[in-house]
């Protein structure tokens, strides 16, 4: 009986010591950070690039509509792919869907993602009063023309130092040079004129600007840069709005927005 009791006591003691000395083994988890790369399509990468420039240059704060800007950049890359540009990083956007009382011209440096100038610009007297509602490429219409242009060479004429525009959209603005559609200074493009008659004065179809900024405008955009005029015209079409061309300027396997080549 005593031997039996002693055996049980020894077993119990061994078990007790084992329990006290037991340290659970915790599996060490080595966390490995995996860097995942999402492959974007050309269209997605282009949209991301447009958004980056739009936000960095703070264009929304100045009233430039995102869809208008995206349309302008679509044309920009199409025109660039056609090897028509010399000054490759600057684009001018004019939005004639806005009142002449608003600053509706933007000059943007795409390379540095920077707004260079936001200012007033006149439309043609044949296009409307405060708002431009009708557009034409006809010589005697005194109307503004829509679409993509190249801001080309500088000359001195009746309006002083001016900048010729070459229209690129057949049927909408290709008569621009023959019509004498140019960027020039005009005294009626001023805040004082808006205060006096409630709108800017109007041109014979030229995108006229204030004498205070004309030198800056001309010096910045001369030499074959993209100049885009947007307006309310459901019939406007352009071969330079071909989204398929964007694949030439983006890399679907690279996610960095700056992979878009300027």
Provide an overview of this structure.
With 262 residues, this protein is α+β, with helices and mostly antiparallel strands. The protein has a single domain (42-232), classed as L,D-transpeptidase catalytic domain-like (Beta Barrel). 27% of the residues lie in helices and 17% in strands. It contains six helices and seven strands, in the order αααβββββαβααβ. The chain has helices at 2-21, 42-56, 66-81, 176-179, 191-197, 214-221; strands spanning 90-95, 105-109, 114-119, 147-157, 160-167, 182-183, 225-230. It has a seven-stranded mixed β-sheet with strand order 3-2-1-7-4-5-6.
Strand content: 15-25%
What name is given to the CATH topology? L,D-transpeptidase catalytic domain-like
**CATH uppermost class:** Mainly Beta
Q: DSSP helix count?
A: 6
- Note poorly predicted spans: 1-8, 13-36, 251-260
Q: How can the largest sheet be summarized?
A: 7 strands, mixed
Overall tally of structural domains: 1
CATH-defined architecture: Beta Barrel
